[in-house]
Amino acid sequence: MRDRRQTKLPALAITHVIVAILLFSAMQTLAFDFAAPFVDPLQTLPKIIESGVSLPGDAKPVTCPVNKDFSNPLALAEAVDLALCNNPQIKAAWATIKVQSGSVGEARAAYLPTLSGSTNFMRTHTTYPGSSTAATTVDGKTIYGTLSWRLFDFGGRDANRKSANSLLVAAIAHHDAALQKTLSDVVQAYFDAHTAKTTLQAKEQNEAIAKNTFETAQRREARGAVSRGDTLQATTALAKASLEKNRAIGAYQKTLSLLVYALGVPTQTRIILSDDLRDKEALESRSLDDWLKIATESHPAVLSARAQWESSKQRITLTRSEGLPTLDLSDSYYQNGYPGQGLSSTQSQVNSIGISISIPFFDGFSRTYKIRGAEALAEQRTAELQDTEQSTMMEVVKAHADAAASLQNLQASENLLSAAQESLNTSQRKYDKGAADILEILNTQSALSDAKQERIRSLAEWRSARLRLLAGVGLMGREAVIP
Fold first, then answer.
1. What is the mean pLDDT of each run of 10 residues along the chain (483 residues)?
2. What are the extents of the domains in the chain?
């Protein structure tokens, strides 16, 4: 007959359970993470995680978040800080650094031993049907513990560690590239908005001049000094100036919308631009070869591609080592039984120490194709590195040429504007005295409008070329772009 007596767990076992429950509750209260009890025991997080990343030439990183009262004019420095704090690509690249530092930790952890253990409180009830032997019930606990340590693996762990380190360097460089791109985009958007604002102001001045000419023509027509034709021509010029001003208003609003997007602020935000830009910012006097050398050494896109190429070479070694023998040390301890088995009827303690050699003899040629794939990936990374270097150098060459040309055009456009303004003033005085006809004043008015547009275009080309040159060599920082 089966013995159905209900026996209680030993008092010691009950005490262990209560202590475990209390300990678990205390750990939860203290927010203790059982899966990761230490923040960074293997020191894999780069220093920039704590200190932050400073742009080239900057003394310290941007402090986020940035609070901005948009009822006041938006300065370029404020626009840069807002974009750097709000851009999602920068945030994603920052998270990638943390993810890759975790991979570095996994690679370093492979050099350390692993220790695992478990304990079980068990009751084993044994009956013997058809036998006079009395049923038995045994209460007790089992303890299992295993220590494993890989001693040798033909360089697989070392290659994996170097590959992870290279990918971490690539992640940091990718974050730097995201900073450079965001800074370039927001500064370009800010410059474009200022250019559109300046264009609008020029069109408003042209409209005012055309209106003044129209009123003068009306007065002279009323005195009989000119014909109706002069007034009609002045009316046509005024209508054209008004049309150009209206188009400039639309272009200005469009650039403001693009600036709002670059800042990462709500789309309904109304922006007022401040007048904090100089007509001419200085450019460092360096030769083209110097700029190219700087780009090769410091451009984050090149650094990221180079680090990924280094990682791909290590992956070849890692893949090859997976098909080679490994040497492991193990130490196991079993008390009152083995995992997956019932409780031993008698107390027992077993300790087993051994060294194992694993030799992968055949895997269906899987390793062969993995190695081929790793080698092909290294070839791909090599081509990508070459392409990145060539495209970066080409952008530097073009930006350097554009910057040199646009810098020379600044003085020429300033001279042109000054001459056109003086010519219009002279024509207006002559027209008021009847010494010039309407065609002369309209021509000088049109020439002044063209000179203003050329001046605005020259400034825009200079700012854009200077910006692209700094971005092309990876030296764009707040101090470099903010006048």
1. 42 54 51 61 87 79 86 89 92 94 93 89 81 80 89 92 94 92 89 90 90 87 82 91 94 95 92 73 73 90 94 94 91 83 78 90 90 95 95 91 87 90 88 80 87 88 85 80 64
2. 70-112+155-324+366-481, 113-152+325-359
Nearest to 481 by CA among 85, 80, 174: 80
Nearest CA-CA partner of 93 in 304, 283, 250, 263: 304
Give the pTM. 0.79
Q: Which amino acid is at 465?
A: A
Domain 70-112+155-324+366-481, CATH number (from 2.30.110.10, 1.20.1600.10, 1.10.10.10, 1.20.1440.20): 1.20.1600.10
With contact defined as beta carbons under 8 Å apart, do 150 and 327 qualify? Answer: yes
* Strand ranges (E), 336-416: 349-358
Q: How many CB atoms lie within 10 A of CB 135?
A: 15
Rounded to whole angstroms, what are the CA distances from 396 to 55, 284, 303, 442? Answer: 19, 14, 16, 43
**Which of 314, 320, 366, 34 has its CA nearest to residue 158?**
314
What SS3 state is found at 119?
strand
CB-based burial label for 112 (10 Å; 0-12, 13-18, 19+): exposed
pLDDT digits (tens, 9 = 90+) for 371-426: 999 999 999 999 999 999 999 999 899 989 988 888 888 889 889 999 999 998 89
Q: Which residues pair with 143 in a beta bridge?
A: 119, 335
The per-residue pLDDT for 260 is 95
Report the C-alpha gap between 218 and 225 in whole angstroms.
Answer: 10
Strand order in the sheet with 326-335: 114-126, 136-152, 326-335, 349-358
pLDDT given for residue 32 in this prediction: 47
CATH topology of domain 113-152+325-359: Outer membrane efflux proteins (OEP) (2.20.200)
Radius of gyration of the chain from its Cα atoms, rounded to whole angstroms: 38
Do 261 and 434 form a contact (C-beta atoms < 8 A)?
no
Which amino acid is present at 335? Q
Output the CA–CA distances (angstroms, integers) from residue 179 to 237, 241, 251, 400, in the order listed: 47, 41, 28, 22
pLDDT score of 17: 56
Give residue for tokens 């209508």: 239
Enumerate residues 6+ apart whose C-beta is below 8 A from 437: 230, 431
**361-370 pLDDT, tens per residue?**
888 899 899 9
Distance of alpha carbon 339 from alpha carbon 369, whole angstroms: 38
CA 268, distance to chain mean position in Å, is 25
pLDDT of residue 159: 94
